[in-house]
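BACKBONE GEOMETRY TOKENS
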Amino acid sequence: MKLLRVFQLLGVSLLLIGAVAACSDDDDDGDEGEPAATTAPAASSGDSVSVEAKDFSFDPTSFTVAAGEEVTVTLNNTGNAGHTLTVYTDEEYSDPVDGAETSVNAGETGEFKATFEGGEYYFRCEVHPSQMTGTLEAE
């Protein structure tokens, strides 16, 4: 019976932690801390993917596309600063994928079309390279 009570208390504690995290400060006060990682699938429609850039984060930070098929990647900048989205073949960001990049000012939308062979790719914002990164999986 005591073990059941411990599990109940643990469950309530986890729910409270989740509620506090969900209600955390989300205003635009210029904080440049590490954004929370988002791994939800990007909004997609067939052969297209949509990524949001806002302040100092991408949403989502990872997504999957069909290997060997052309995909349109759209970058929606809903923040107040300019951003880019550039895709690389390596984690060191030294080998960019030809044509897999776009640059947008605040409030604008940009896109590119590219075909990715199977594997993992890495993307980042060239304006905020240490804060805005993510992965793209082609399968």
About this structure: The CA atoms of residues 55 and 79 lie 5 Å apart. The first strand starts at residue 43 and ends at 44.
